[in-house]
Specification:
- The protein is mainly α.
- The chain is built from eight helices and two strands, in the order ααββαααααα.
- A hairpin with a 6-residue loop joins strand 1 (29-30) and strand 2.
Length: 156
């Protein structure tokens, strides 16, 4: 089957099939008569696996590792477990940071409701941002020994 047929069969755009082919995760045969890529049932299975792995936030590199192990006849399951546990820890950390950011943003919007709009001047660009002080989120960062400005830049 050709790119469009494989894409239609698994429910993705043809560019998705082309992308994973360029990445080397799919290995179609070339039809000697016309030079077209021909995908088989093994490519359907691999692409379905790739899409499921992507739904679990495995990176292309992670998937390449898992497929390489499977192609060598090695069980990729221990690697999959280790990778997803690491990814889960990363996601939980990001979620915690996003929750803190939401809290700061909520505090800012509540504080700014009562503030007037001001034109920029020599002393201020936007007084709302410059005067905002969220001590509750600053204290833990300072206690961690991390420079506050560097932390704030990482959230931008």
């Amino acid at each position: 089957m050709r790119v469009k047929e494989l894409a239609h069969l698994v429910g993705v755009p043809p560019d998705t099939v082309r992308f994973y082919t360029r990445e080397g995760l799919l290995s179609p045969n070339k039809n000697p008569a016309n030079g077209y890529r021909e995908y088989g049932l093994s490519d359907v299975k691999r692409l379905s696996f790739i899409l499921r792995a992507r739904q679990l936030a495995f990176s292309v590199e992670d998937i390449r590792t898992l497929l390489t192990q499977a192609d060598r006849g090695e069980a990729p399951c221990p690697t999959a477990r280790a990778l997803i546990e690491a990814r889960l820890a990363e996601m939980e950390q990001r979620l915690e940071e996003l929750q803190k950011l939401c809290k700061r943003m909520r505090a800012a919007t509540q504080t700014w409701e009562a503030e007037p709009d001001c034109e920029p001047c020599d002393q201020h660009i936007c007084h709302l941002i410059e005067l905002f002080d969220d001590r509750e989120t600053k204290r833990p960062l300072e206690e961690q020994g991390q420079p506050l400005q560097a932390q704030e830049r990482s959230h931008v």
